[in-house]
Amino acid sequence: MRTDISLIPPNKSHYKWYILMLATAISALVVGAERMCLPPLFIEITESLNMSMTQMLTVWAMDPLAGVFTSLGGGLLIDKFGVKRTLAAACLLAGITGGLRGISVDFPSMAVTMFMFGLLAAAMPTLLAKVTATWFRQRLALANSIIAVGATSGSMLGTITSAMILSPLLGGWRYVLFLYGIPPVLLGLLWFITAREPDRGKTRTAEVSQVPFREALSRVIRIKSVWIIGLVSMGTMGAFISMSGYLPTYLRAVGWDGAAADSALTVLIGMTAISSIPMGIISDRLGSRKAVLVPSFFLVAVTLGAIPFFDGPAVWVLIVVNGLLRGSMFPLLTSLVVEQEGVGARYAGTAIGVVLSLGMLGGSFTPPLGGAIADVYGGGAALLTWAAISMVSLAGFFFVKEAPRNTNRSIEHSAEPRP
To answer: How far apart are CA 297 and CA 303, in angstroms?
Structure first.
């Protein structure tokens, strides 16, 4: 009996768990490790390339800036061409462009290579959300939570190893970036070889596999709630991206040693990983995404803004609480978008692309904004600025309605045209 995974029928129940496992690995190594290996190397890179911290934070913002273009573009592509070819190509190119960051010689070249990498990495959450929307309609929040755990686990790997272990071992930051570019290429090849589109005509899943550009875009841009969720995403994701990049540098500036500062970011991400699945389960049990998202995001903003006013163990407590509450961000926002009336699995890629594009737009201007404020008023002022932006964005939740969740029919049929 042949056991080649590529021959497993794509509509078998165990095959979707293989798909989820592989998608989680992609999330871990592209969205997580390859991206988050950079912040602990900020000081080493700035010294090597003679850059200021504001320039380094501007480089960091190139990733979400690129995502403004590719989060929506990736959604349109995967809705049009399906999960197999689109995700495989994105993984291959993310590995190549991520490694190219290691050849940078100054601020402009570092910014350009980071932007190139961001075009692929920032699109990845949209692509992976299409995978879960296609295969896991009945356990959508759980599947998205597992993907989020992959991203956060990979981020922990990147933050804990890049500066303290790999850079001294390999001979500098350039070789760390080269190394982290290899796994995405291998995963892209594995996805292309083993992943399969659903069989047409045998399952409703096939009905959402491929959607024309014009149909997807014209349908989604008319859904007001998608845009409102996108504005919420702009503030909350912008604050998180900014904090994630700046936290080790801020803690070093207030007297923490390098190991403790890098460990703080690892703990922040680790707490997010721990809470992602429980947050998804709680939301499913409550039958509401907003019931978890609103109080969580409120306390995330409060704990972020409180960090400058404390020191020592109290900062660790704030970081732990902040990370635990952030576990709801990606899986529940994604689920909330998919469950909006008129979206469903059919238009999931495009709708999530719109939301993440706005989120990446926030992440493109908040890091340099905070960096400029930190240069004048200190790093604590930057954290307060990001906390305020996150807090203001929460108002959007009060203008978003949730679909009834007593059955799964609303998700499966919500994208069907109205009579």
So the answer is: 10
